[in-house]
Amino acid sequence: MATEESTKTPTSGKGSSAYLMSIVRTLSSSADFEQREQEKTRIEKAFRESDKRLGELVTTHYQDVTKILQGFGKMTKSINDSREKIRKIKEDLSSCKTLLHFKRDELRKLWRDGVEHKAVLSMLEQIEQIKEVPDKMDAYIAKKYYLHATDLIVQAVAKLEGPLAQVEALRDLRAELNGRKETLHEKLIEELNQQIYVRSVQTLSMQRGGSARLSRRDASVWGWTDSTTFNTPTTTRTESSDSNKGGVHLEVVEDLNRDPTENLAHFISILTESLFVLRKLPEAVEITKMRIEPELLSLVAKATQQVAESAGQQSDSLANQSEPRHLLDLLQLIFQQFRCVAATHQIVLKNVHRLTVTSMPLHAEVVYDMKDVWSNIQAVLPLFRFDASLHALSTNSYIEDTRQFDASDLGQQNLLTRMSKQQKICRPSAFNITAIYKPLKAFIHEIEDAMGMESPAGLQEFITDFVQNAFLGQVHQRVSQSIDAATKGFDALRNVIDDKVRRELGVPRPLLQSTVTVDESIGELQELMMALPDYADQFLTMVCNVLREYRDKCHSAYRDIVQHGADDRRVISAMWAKDEDISRSLPSWRTLQPSADGKELDGTVCSEQEMRALNSKEAVILITNLSTDETLIPQQEIITDVTQMRTVANVHESLEWFASRLQQMTDSLAEGSKAAGPDGLPADQLPTDAVPVSAPTLASLRSLVQDFRDLAEVCLLLLHLEVRVHCFYYLLPVAKQSNYAGPIDDLDPDSNVLKLNKDLSSMEEVLSQSLQPKKFKYIFETLGYLVASILISSVQFLKKINENGIKKMCRNILAIQQNLTNITLTRETDLDRARQFYELLYLSPDVSSMTDRFQDVLNGIAEKGPQFTGSDYAMLIHLYHRSHPGNPIPVQEARMQRLTEIMEKGQNETV
């Protein structure tokens, strides 16, 4: 039997071959005849089926088969024809080879002639191209395609000095192109400086793109390997691999369809690349370094003119104006321009460094770096005389010391002329430094950061030297002269500001001119502290010195007013004001003292009883010290010149205002020092008025502020006491020296009372103009109570009194009451009490009637309570009995005993 594999029908050519081989193996390996017959029968059957299937397919695809057979026939014929042609060509080539062998020398000659003609044709083409170079260069340069122009001229000159060197007809063209090459080099240097010093200051926002790294194969920074072929450059360079370094470098692309100057950084890379191609990069770098300072000076001159024009004036007129803001505008403009210049130099140096390192790393040297740029910037800024606000440059010394080149060769023909002119933009003054110090300091920090300096920059040393050795001395001299002029002379502390100045200051009462002058000087020093914060401690020390000097002069003036004679004795009020035990025990003074929260106490909050108690305490203190004996107050122990009291009042108002101003300054400095301290805010977040000062100096300032406040308080207390001492001075003689037992026609007020009224009116006139209302009220309020107390206590000094004397005393009281009412604008009811006290003496001379009368008085005291003290009643009884010596002594003793009993009983009931 046939195997299962042998029964399979083939489906492809490869399968048919395998199928046939399977049949052969089956027939060969079968030993049974029957099996072979069966296999044969099966194969014949399959053949018949295949033949039948093939016939059907041929019938179905007859046309396609016909076409295939026809195509195959044509192809066979074409192949046969091609074979015949090839055979014929081989025969012809063999014949040609035989013929050429006989013409070899003649053909060699023709070949050499062809090569020569081709070389000549190429040379002619190159000559034609070279002739077009000048026109192409002009076109490129006009549009500032400098890299195209550079490549064009370099390759043209290389050809003229290489393959075309022997062409004599090109000698003139060779000279012209060499000249153009040198001119292009100068043009590139000038264009580079134009970009650094003109274009950069106009392009404040620098475009950083476009300055990709680039390299040139087979080139060095100091030489150039010329190409052997010349083609018009496109300067569109692609990435190339450097086999020696294994790196990839990007070439500069100069697009002829775009403006090459639209990107400053990219344009500078084009210029440096062009100088590198021209083998002029080292020379260009050297010249660029040499031109840094003169170009900076030229920028300064232009900026000065620009500031003058923006101010709408000529620099000559600005020089006569004290406007340091113009100097600030100038420096800010210069700083901005210098920053742009430095940034552009940074771009130039990056390109130079890139070219030198990538081309010849072992011999790469850069003639200058950014430290040189910043050093030149600093050198230009000390050429400003800040004390005179002008550009103070000595042209000759400058050229001799720093420049060794011809300015005309670098396009700087007008530099010497500009440098020789000193342009002022404001009036010369050392104080101009105040307007520029902070921005100048910030610029110095920029320089130090850029240069990586650990020590101060040269410009910083210059500024420090100027401030310490020149400016601080001028400030001290100016302040000293101002204060000396204000405080010198006898009337220096008497002159007050006029109404206009007072309105400008917003003060209610006149201030001393000297105080305002000192305050202005302190204000100037405070402004200097804000303007020059690094020297705030020095200025604060000046402030303290000025305050000490003025404090001493104020104390000296105060002593001149209150001191009399050479024994250092002072008027009574001054001694009391100086005595803390007395001054602080006066209740009326306490009512004006600041409370714990800093607010002034309002005297109106006290009840009438409390105010009476305070007034009584003050009256007791004064009476105890001034009217306990028969002696009178000497005239030299009071201030008799009312103008001196005006001066004291002016000193009080001035120093109180001044102390308040100084306190504000102290608080501001304390807050600023705290904010700028080690644990305070960072420098960039500090407020503008944050000025750090040392703690000891600030403590000295606080102490001086308190000194001025104390002196102001002493002056006010002095006036308060002086007015009261004047009352004692005039009223004590009223009782001790006047006669109150005289005839009936002696009823006019006592002369001392009239003098007191006149004195009080004079003091009221000057003090009302010099003191604020609340302080004027403090001076004269409760004065009626004191006068009443003085008159009541003076009963003890009266030897005798009759009815006429009582009327005279009442007239004294009425005269004083009317005068005080005119001064305080309130009825002085306390003087009614004094009058009522003296009216108790209206008693009948008859003993029996007198007894009844005193009995009524004592009964009234017992029923209604005492209106006066027991000692007052006792003095009244003694006075009456002195005035009527005929009264028996037992009667007086009985009245005193009855008075004592009534007063003791009243005290017990009160308790």
Automatic annotation (TrEMBL):
Keywords: Exocytosis, Protein transport, Transport. Transmembrane segments: none annotated. InterPro entries: Sec8/EXOC4 (IPR039682), Sec8_exocyst_N (IPR007191), Sec8_M (IPR048630). GO terms for cellular component: exocyst. GO terms for biological process: protein targeting to membrane; protein transport; vesicle tethering involved in exocytosis. The keyword Nucleotidyltransferase does not apply. Residues 49-139 form the Exocyst complex component Sec8 N-terminal domain. The keyword Protein transport applies. Residues 268-379 form the Exocyst complex component Sec8 middle helical bundle domain. Component of the exocyst complex involved in the docking of exocytic vesicles with fusion sites on the plasma membrane. Belongs to the SEC8 family. This is Exocyst complex component Sec8. It comes from Batillaria attramentaria. The lineage of its organism: Eukaryota, Metazoa, Spiralia, Lophotrochozoa, Mollusca.
